[in-house]
Design goal:
about 230 residues, mainly alpha
């Protein structure tokens, strides 16, 4: 089967699932209507339980307690349903990231929290994290062989947060936030797709130490007493 995320990365110029999820999070897009939300919930539960490859539209309809016709009225194909489920999960990831870093007092603390939050959010997600464990052939290649589009969207998200910090005077103006975001995202992605025998990804304290030692210095010296 074609890698799941790659299948969701459009090459026609239309926004990809990740790009749409990022836009939803930034714009504060409202949730789905009641019926669609119910179907997405059922599809999420079904995909988590059986995997995407082995799940059918009939399975989703049965779990949601509706007819297959109702499912097809909302989602013309299984691919469209999968796309919307994955898009919602990434939208929740972006929303969660923003919430997790709000309580941090300094830009360094926000970078550390963001790094730990990102790894945990994806690894602990029943669908994305579960697929990476149960169906790695369907997910992992998507992150490495899609021309860099998956990483590029996440990089855009991180860069946008760093740019806000720079505009607020928390990061020096000479810092290339695009490059810093690129390095941060690539480091995070490597931990997700290549198991580490040195860093325990279940140890939050160790992850925080890694972020402070290797990510925070990329921001340059503190730009102000409040940085």
């Amino acid at each position: 089967m074609e890698p799941i995320l790659s299948a969701l990365m459009r090459s026609s110029g239309a926004p990809s699932v990740l790009e749409s999820a990022f836009a939803d999070a930034v714009e504060g897009a409202e949730g789905d209507d009641e019926v669609s939300a119910r179907l997405l919930d059922a599809a999420y539960a079904q995909f988590c339980r059986m995997g995407i490859k082995r799940s059918t539209m009939a399975d989703v309809a049965r779990l949601a307690g509706v007819s297959r016709i109702t499912v097809y009225r909302r989602f013309a194909t299984k691919d469209q349903l999968v796309e919307q489920v994955v898009r919602r999960e990434f939208r929740r990831y972006f929303d969660r990231f923003i919430l997790d870093i709000q309580g941090a007092e300094t830009v360094a603390d926000r970078v550390v929290l963001g790094f730990v939050s990102s790894l945990k959010a994806i690894r602990d997600n029943r669908l994305i994290g579960g697929l990476m464990t149960a169906e790695p052939d369907a997910v992992v290649p998507s992150m490495t062989s899609d021309g860099g589009r998956t990483l590029a969207v996440v990089q855009q998200f991180v860069a946008s947060r760093l740019l806000q910090e720079q505009h607020a005077g928390h990061i020096a103006g000479q810092v290339d936030v695009d490059l810093v975001a690129e390095m941060m995202v690539r480091m995070s992605a490597s931990f997700l797709v290549i198991p580490s025998h040195v860093v325990d990804l279940d140890d939050d304290e160790q992850l925080r130490a890694v972020a402070r030692q290797f990510l925070v210095p990329m921001l340059g010296p503190p730009h102000s007493p409040h940085a």
